[in-house]
Amino acid sequence: MDAGGTCPNRVPHANTGGCRYCNARGAGTGLHHQGLSLTQQWQHWLARYARRSPNALFLAYLQSFSNTYRPPRELAIILEEIRQFKDLAAIALGTRPDCLDDEKLDMLAAARHPLDAGPGSGPILDVWLELGLQSASNATLLRINRGHDVETLERAVHAAHARGLLLCLHVMHGLPGETAEDFFCTIDCVNALPVQAVKFHNTLVLDGSALALDWQTGAYSPPARAETVAALAEGLARLRPDIVIQRLTADAWPGELLAPAWAADKSALRTDIIQNMVDCGWTQGFLYRPPPHHDGCDMATFHPGGSHTK
């Protein structure tokens, strides 16, 4: 769903150009700009997917841009509208870790409770925060122009967790300048944080992104398909076994994917990742080793390859 808005990393006064892998669409549906209210969007998608899965439960997922990068009053109005949706099972908001303060976190925590009821009464509604970690390397975050550091992500995760919010981190493979070991260090970081889910993204070169210019000039080349399959398979084996995998591969809107061409077939990629794990005798968490401390992404405690037994 699309609540409108933008991102602090791409507004005109920021003069940063946004994250290098992101284009003007911002991973959104664009339905807000088509004049559809959130209630109309909910009805649209519910009618479409309920026919396909009549017994399914549905959550309202605000995906486009940074959904807490807005005035608190505007966020409150959005949450109030969503909580009145028919057959709502949960709420999920995608945002950046540098777009959360105590007031907004408290507002999100309050949305867990039924309308017209205070804390302690009625069923609790799951509220998910989806935060972009992307990489646990500050050098990489600077290289891709994320505009925040890993420490900001850690603080946001702990503050949200303390309020009973559920957390899903986004992690990317194939970022410029990163190796497989860097990716595994990011997995270690996820393991050390109080999160419930992760979404993986293989890096895509999208038309209109800064990364597209890097690719066109030869400054960036996406990893080979076999490299991506092997890294994601091992990453899953290293991932804490209780963490839910909400997404395994990324996709692009029609006409936007410039490279790699093989990324267009998500189903085949997923099949090969699973087959790689089967061939290695791995399941999720097979290579997981608890870090010395479970309180954050202290890269000094991470040893790339240390739990690698293949």
UniProtKB/TrEMBL annotation:
> Which keywords are on file for this protein?
4Fe-4S, Iron, Iron-sulfur, Metal-binding, S-adenosyl-L-methionine
Tell me the SUPFAM superfamilies matching this sequence: Radical SAM enzymes
Among the GO molecular function terms of this UniProt record, one is: metal ion binding
PROSITE patterns, sorted? RADICAL_SAM
Sorted alphabetically, which Pfam families does this protein's record hold? Radical_SAM, Radical_SAM_C
InterPro entries tied to this protein: ELP3, Elp3/MiaA/NifB-like_rSAM, Radical_SAM_C, rSAM, rSAM_sf, YhcC-like
Domain of life assignment: Bacteria
Q: Which cofactor does it need?
A: [4Fe-4S] cluster
Where would I find the Radical SAM core domain in this sequence? 1-240
Keyword 4Fe-4S included in the entry's annotation: yes
Task: Answer whether the UniProt record assigns the keyword Iron-sulfur to this protein.
Answer: yes
User: Which PANTHER family does this UniProt record tie to the protein?
Assistant: HISTONE ACETYLTRANSFERASE-RELATED, PROTEIN YHCC
Supply the name of the protein.
Answer: Putative Radical SAM domain protein
